[in-house]
Each structure stands twice: as C-alpha cells, then as structure tokens.
Amino acid sequence: MKLRFCRLLICVCSALAVAQVEAVEVESMPAQGSLQAAFAPWDNIENLIADVIDGANRQVLVQAYLLTSKRIAETLIVAHRRGVEVKVLVDAEQLVKAESSRAPDLHAAGIAVWLETAYQNAHNKIIVVDAAAPDATVITGSYNFTWTAQHKNAENILIARKNPALAARYAENWERHRQQSIPYKK
Fold this sequence. Notes:
Helix content is 41%, strand content 23%. It is of the alpha+beta class and 186 residues long. It has an eight-stranded mixed sheet, sandwiched between helices. A hairpin with a 7-residue loop joins strand 5 and strand 6. Helix 2 runs parallel beside helix 3 (70-81).
C-alpha cells in the first residue's frame, strides 16, 4: 500500500514539475484601439467579417477549424485578386469531414492553404488583417466560419481594431502553426 502511494505521489509530482517547466510567462499589453463584440444569430457576424477583409490592404491571415461560408471564402478570393496576400490554415480532419469546405476553392483561386495536423483539433478561429499596419485588426471568438455558425448556433466574435501589438502576437502564433502544417494539395 505504501509503495503504491509513493509511486502515485512520484507521478503526481513529476506531472506538476513538467507543467511548471512548460508554463511560460505571457506578457500583457496595453489596451489600444477599439473592440467590437458581436453575437450570432442576432448580429450578422458573417457581414462584419467580410467588411474587415474588404478593408485589408496588405495581408489576411486566417486560422479556421472549419471554413464553409461561401461569403467569407468569396471575400477572401476577392481580396487575393486585388493584390492582398491571403494565407489560410485549416484543421486537416475537418477538411476531410466537411464536403462543403471552401479550402479547395481558395486553393484553386491561388490562395496558399495549409492543413494543420499536429493537434487533435486545430480549433482556432482567427483572422488577422494587416498585422504590421497601425490599423491592424484581429478577429477571434467561438465563431466558426460557417453558415451554421451564423444561422443555427450561439456564437461570438471580438474584433480588435487598431492594435498592431495584438495583431503581431496573433500573426506570430499563426506563423508558428503554419510551420507545423502541410501545404494543401488537391
């Protein structure tokens, strides 16, 4: 009995030690710019997202668990065609499961698409627009980029505008995920 307890104690202490080693101090940053919160199904989040993408001048980075929204995909393609660099990460498993995924359409339009395979769920729902610019914008929240998220689910987004430090942090994380991903090939 004592031996089992000691082994259990050693396992718990080892797990705690590992957790402490992996804990990283995350810097806070000053509040800046403006915030806009929206909630589906009451607010038209799809249009808010499209408006932000339409305002992009240089770059749009997308991290999506699932991207089936025709409107958002079309807005990304239009941005790409007008010279905005558009890059997209999607959860590889969701791409396989969802026949209505827009990733193939984005790829066919010449947009760089990568598949996240390193995680059980690549569950991020993020759009970063013009991260290096003074008017940098980050969109994040529970909202999947899908018709269902807008019309059937209870979802939220937060749009943080004119916050380049926040956008840079999200863009850095986006790039870290891209480096772990594989390019989409049809």
